[in-house]
């Protein structure tokens, strides 16, 4: 195993050795005040680490069921997720449903009825197509309302 790791590192090193790449990060603006040649001015704004916009849409707080308040409290008790958690309300198959976005990657988003019972997981998972119990959700959902979005 150790020999394999060494061989892989050696191969990587030799494959990349012919390229000479120099990366620098500016910390001060150029002396002349203008950019020319290879000079790059220092950044003028704060770095952005959160790809989600700072705009938080107004949430519909009317008549949040107790089970939904508990789900929101559970999300807030955890560390901030990226992407942030959003809960939306839709009409689907003639009923009001709540959609909770997936915490990340191959995890499932969830759709609940008004009592908090899980109906389906319309997207996510390895295939990205959810659990298959509501394959038409994306096409047939309507009347989107943001119920809650993690404000952190």
- Which sheet architecture does the biggest sheet show? 5 strands, antiparallel
Radius of gyration: 24 Å
Number of beta strands? 5
Question: What structural class is derived from the secondary structure elements?
Answer: alpha+beta
Poorly predicted sequence stretches spanning 5 or more consecutive residues? 6-18, 52-57
The residue-averaged pLDDT reads 77
Write the layout of secondary structure elements.
Blueprint: H1 2-16, H2 66-77, E1 86-92, E2 95-100, E3 110-112, E4 118-120, H3 137-140, E5 142-149
Antiparallel strand pairs: 1-2, 1-5, 2-3, 3-4
Biased composition (Polar residues): 39-50
Region (Disordered): 23-60, 124-152
Biased composition (Basic and acidic residues): 130-144
Give a quick summary of the entry.
Residues 23-38 have a biased composition (Low complexity). Residues 75-150 form the DUF6970 domain. With 152 residues, the protein is of the alpha+beta class.
Describe this structure in words.
This protein has 152 residues and is an alpha+beta fold. The chain has a domain at 86-149. 20% of the residues lie in helices and 18% in strands. The chain has helices at residues 2-16, 66-77, 137-140, and strands at 86-92, 95-100, 110-112, 118-120, 142-149. The chain has a five-stranded antiparallel beta sheet, with no helix packed on it. A hairpin with a 5-residue loop joins strand 3 (110-112) and strand 4. It is extended, with a radius of gyration of 24 Å. The protein starts with a helix and ends with a strand.
């Amino acid at each position: 195993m150790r020999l394999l790791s060494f061989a892989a590192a050696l191969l990587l090193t030799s494959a990349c050795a012919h390229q000479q790449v120099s990366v620098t990060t500016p910390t001060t603006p150029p002396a002349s005040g203008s950019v020319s040649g290879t000079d790059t001015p220092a950044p003028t704004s704060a770095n952005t680490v959160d790809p989600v916009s700072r705009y938080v849409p107004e949430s519909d707080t009317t008549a949040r069921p107790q089970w939904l308040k508990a789900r929101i409290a559970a999300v807030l008790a955890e560390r901030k997720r990226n992407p942030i958690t959003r809960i939306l309300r839709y009409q689907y198959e003639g009923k009001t449903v709540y959609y909770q976005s997936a915490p990340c990657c191959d995890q499932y988003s969830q759709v609940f009825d008004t009592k908090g019972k899980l109906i389906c997981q319309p997207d996510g998972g390895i295939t990205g197509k959810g659990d298959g119990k509501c394959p038409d959700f994306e096409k047939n959902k309507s009347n989107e309302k943001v119920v809650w979005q993690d404000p952190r």
